[in-house]
Automatic annotation (TrEMBL):
Gene that encodes the chain: MLPH
Name of the protein in question: Melanophilin
Superkingdom of the source species: Eukaryota
Boundaries of every FYVE-type zinc finger domain copy: 2-88
Organism: Ovis aries (Sheep)
GO molecular function terms attached to this record: actin binding; myosin binding
Amino acid sequence: GLKGKIKKENSKRELLSDTVHLNNTPCAHCLQPYRLLETPKRQSLECHLFTCRGCSHPHPEEQGWLCDPCHLARVVKMGSLEWYYGHVRARFKRFGSAQ
């Protein structure tokens, strides 16, 4: 499913981020080389890898870009309300404990 696809993309991203020289040559997602005017580099706000226009989404709230895997992960996280429960857990971590 969708979570499996995200897990696969995360492992691909980890592998690519370990190879520093790839940040300077092709798109980290589709591996196409950058052309100065046609496909400018865009750095993902989440993973900080560089992607092309076709592999990124604008993120106006943070005034930047998200690569496809990071965008998909955020959509799933928002849809599952995981972000909300994580925030509530962190906020009320000690509530009810004997400290």
